[in-house]
Amino acid sequence: MADIMERNVTGQKSGPSLTKKDLITAWLNWMYYFQSCYNYERMQGIGFLHAMSSVIKRLYKDDPEERKRAMKRHLKFINTENAFGSPIVGLVAAMEEQKANGADFDDDAFTSIKAGLMGPLAGVGDPLWQGVVIPLLIVFFIGLAIEGSVVAPVIYSIVFYAIYYGVGYWLFNLGYNKGSEKILEFMESGTIKRMIMGAGIMGNAVIGGLVANYVSLRTVVQIEQAEDKVFVLQTELFDKIMPGILPLALTLGCYWLLKKGVSSVTVILIIAVVGVIGGLIGIL
């Protein structure tokens, strides 16, 4: 694989070349149809072939036999995250272009590149989108929706897809123009780790604000101290210790239960039962 990385995007082009339209079509086909005909045998293999169709058509339009061979080699197994998997499409397109111009790439070279990169890229892409970006955006725009903003879901979709497709297109061009060395250099540079850490800090701040504003838990316990004086537990104790301490405790308690493996449905039922009992006995 190291030999492939050294050869992938070097050399003078003397034969057929890919146009900007071919490359954009390949990338869009990958982003939209990467899981087309998804199956256990090839996973995203058919989707990857569909992404490469514009590349194959351009490079081998006068060579039907080579076109068939190209389609067969790109039908093999691949499974990765589609936005962070975009550089694989770009890199393979560059290799295919070089092969059409005389580079000595056999079918195993393409398979090795895909097999070597699909796992690490999926390992970065899946947790980044599903564990950081999507929850962070949802938390932020849910706050706007609760306040009555009817456009919050629309803005959420626009922002998410702008980030998603922007990152995917940049990585696609990184793979096509720079090759696998730059892809691995980017993954090992610490940039991803810093992005995840920064997003996590921002997410905690947003969640903290939402807890303070939208999680409601108060006690109505009052203790008579004298004929004309009543000790209100909420205002005289909890609010003086820290305003919002009960909602915070409720949130941390739910988080603790989830970390212990309690299902979210069970946590919701516990909250409902505690709320009903607390209301009936007059403490909540």
Features:
single chain; 284 residues; mainly alpha; two-stranded antiparallel sheet; 12 helices; 2 strands; 71% helix; disordered N terminus
Please describe what this structure looks like.
The chain is mainly alpha-helical. It folds into two domains: 2-205, no CATH class; 219-281, no CATH class. Helices cover 71% and strands 3% of the residues. The chain has twelve helices and two strands, in the order αααααααααββααα. The chain has helices spanning 2-7, 20-33, 45-59, 64-73, 86-100, 107-146, 152-178, 180-188, 191-214, 233-241, 245-259, 264-281; strands at 222-226, 229-232. Helix 6 runs antiparallel to helix 7 (152-178). It is elongated, with a radius of gyration of 27 Å. Mean pLDDT is 79; it is low at 1-12.
| Element order: H for helix, E for strand | HHHHHHHHHEEHHH
The major pleated sheet works out as:
2 strands, antiparallel
Helix content: over 70%
What is the strand content? under 5%
Number of strands: 2
Any idea what the shape is?
Answer: elongated
As for the number of domains, it is 2
Unreliable runs, pLDDT <50, ≥5 residues?
1-12
What class would the helix/strand composition place it in?
mainly alpha
Mean pLDDT: 79
From the alpha carbons, calculate the radius of gyration and give it in angstroms.
Answer: 27 Å
Span of the ends, CA to CA: 65 Å
Count of helical segments?
12
Order of strands in the sheet with most strands: 1-2
